[in-house]
Amino acid sequence: MLILTCPCCGVTGEETEFHQGGEAHLKRFGPGSSDDDFHTYMFAKENPKGAHFERWRHNNGCGKWFIAARDTVTLEVYGTYPAQTHEPPQHIRDAITARRPGWTWREFA
Amino acid sequence: MKHYSAFAVAREALRYHMGWERAWASPEPKKKYDVIIVGAGGHGLATAYYLGKNFGVTNVAVLEKGWLGGGNTGRNTTIIRSNYLQDPSAAIYEKSRSLYETLSQDLNYNIMFSPRGVIMLAQTEHEVRGYQRTAHANALQGVRTEFISPARVKEIVPIINLDGPRYPVLGGLWQARGGTARHDAVAWGYARACSAMGMHIIQKCEVTGIRREGGRVTGVTTNRGDIACDKLGLVVAGHSGHLADMAGFRLPIESVALQALVSEPIKPCMDCVVMANTVHGYMSQSDKGEMVIGGGTDGYNNYTQRGSFHHIEETVRALIETFPMVARLKMLRQWGGIVDVTGDRSPILSKAPVDGIFINCGWGTGGFKAIPGSGWGFAELMAKGHSPLCDEFGLDRFYQGRFIDESVAAGVAH
C-alpha cells in the first residue's frame, strides 16, 4: 500500500485517496511542432526500474495536483512537491542518490 | 527426446519410472548463435519453436534471467479467447486459439487445453451494445462468438446471480471454443520441443547489456559472459522498457502490476470461464477445484510482482455480488505479475530502431492466450523481415497515429 503526503494540504493518506496522472515534468508539444517531438512527447514513456517522477492528484481530498518521486521497485516514496515546480528539488534528488547512486531520469540526475 | 505415449507410461510403470529423462537440456552458453531470444516465457519459447519448425533456424539460444516460465507465463489466469474487436487483433488471437486446439499433439506434451467456453458478462447498457458490436465484428472476421441472453447465461453458469442489484447481468458475449490451458505446461512443452531441435535454453542468465556496432546488434552481455548473435529478439513483457533502455531506444509502454488469486479447492461448480469487465473480476475453476480469480491492475507504474492490497477487496467484492456462493470461500494465494501496457492496449511485434533487434511486447493484461500465435508471427517476422500477422502491430503505428484500439473492447480484464 502506497502512502503519500499531499504537499498542498499536508494530509498523509493511502493510495486510494489519490490518483496517478502519468509522467511528470513533461514538456508539451502541440500543433506546429515536429512529428518527432510530438511522437516522443505523446508516446515514448519513461518506464524506469527505479526512481520515477509522476503527477498525482489528491482526488479524494483537496483535489490539487502534485508531483511524487517514487521507487517503482521498492515502492519507497522519496518525497512529494507542488506541481508548479519545474524540476525535482535538491533534497529529493539527494534522497534518491542515497538509495540509488548514479540514477538518472530523463535530463535530471 | 523420448516420445510420451500411453505405451511409455506402461513401460516406465514396469521399471519403477527410472527411465524418464529431463524434458530439456541445460547446456553451457556457446560463444555465438544465429538468433538469441531474451526471455524464456511462453512467447519467447514459442518464437524459438516456430523459428525451428517453420523456418529451419535451430542455432538459437533462449536466455532467461530467472527460471523457465517463472514470469507472467506462470502468473496469469490461463484464459484463452479471441473475441477481439479489431481485425488485426482477431487475426492473431484466433490464429493463436486455433493453434492451441492441436498444441498438445504438436508438442507431444499435454498442455491440458480445455475449450470450456468463455462468457464476458454485459452488466451495463454500454457493454450490451459493445458486445453486440463485437459479436457482429467477429462474425465478419470468422471468429465464432454470439451474444446471449441472461437466461442462457444462467443456464451455462447456474451459480451466477443475475439480479445485481448494482450490476445486473444483461447478457453476455459467448465464445464456445474459448477456454483455458495449463500455463506452465505450455512453457514446458515448447521448451522440450526446442531442446529436442538442438536449441539452447539457458536459465539464470541475465542480460545486462546489448552490444551494438555501427547501428547493428552484435550480441549481448550477460552474467555468464558475452554471447554474440546475428539477430536478437526481446520478449520480456514487463521488463521490455528496461531492455530497450540498454539498446538505446524508448517504447510506448508502461509497466504495472496485475494480480490474481486462488481459493481453496472445492467440488466442480462452474465449467466455463466468466469475465466481468465492468467490475474488474473474472473467474474460472481449475482442474484441482480452486477458483482462479483475476483482478485489476495497479494505478501506477511498478515492478513489485505483488499488486496493491485494495484491489483484492475490490475484485472480491464485485465477485461476491455476481457469485454469492464465493462469499464463504477462503483464498489460498495471491500474487502479481508485471504487465507491459501500451496506449491502445494492443501488442508490439516489430523491428526495433536498432538493426537486427526485434521486439515482442505490450501484450499487457492478456498475453497468455496469444502465446502460439505470437510465436508463429514473430518467428516469421524474425526470419523473413515481415509477417502478415505482425505487420499491423509495428512500432511505427504510434508515429503514424494508426492505433489498434482494443482499450474499449478489451478494457482491463483479459
TrEMBL record, chain A:
Top-level lineage group: Bacteria
A GO molecular-function annotation: sarcosine oxidase activity
Matching InterPro entries: SoxD (IPR006279), SoxD_sf (IPR038561)
GO biological process: tetrahydrofolate metabolic process
Pfam families linked: SoxD
Protein name (record): Sarcosine oxidase subunit delta
Automatic annotation (TrEMBL), chain B:
Catalytic activity: sarcosine + O2 + H2O = formaldehyde + glycine + H2O2; sarcosine + (6S)-5,6,7,8-tetrahydrofolate + O2 = (6R)-5,10-methylene-5,6,7,8-tetrahydrofolate + glycine + H2O2
Keywords of the record: Cytoplasm, FAD, Flavoprotein, FMN, Nucleotide-binding, Oxidoreductase
Alphabetical list of InterPro entries matching this protein: FAD-dep_OxRdtase, FAD/NAD-bd_sf, Rhodanese-like_dom, SoxB
BP term (GO), one: tetrahydrofolate metabolic process
Cofactor(s) needed by this chain: FAD; FMN
EC number: 1.5.3.24
Pfam family membership, one: DAO
Claim: Nucleotide-binding is one of the keywords in the record: yes
Rhodanese domain sequence ranges: 35-79
Broad enzyme group: oxidoreductase
Gene Ontology molecular function, alphabetical: nucleotide binding; sarcosine oxidase activity
Subcellular location: Cytoplasm
Main location: cytoplasm
Recorded GO CC terms: cytoplasm
Family to which the UniProt record says this protein belongs: Belongs to the SoxB family.
Protein name, entry field: Sarcosine oxidase subunit beta
Source species of the chain: Roseovarius azorensis
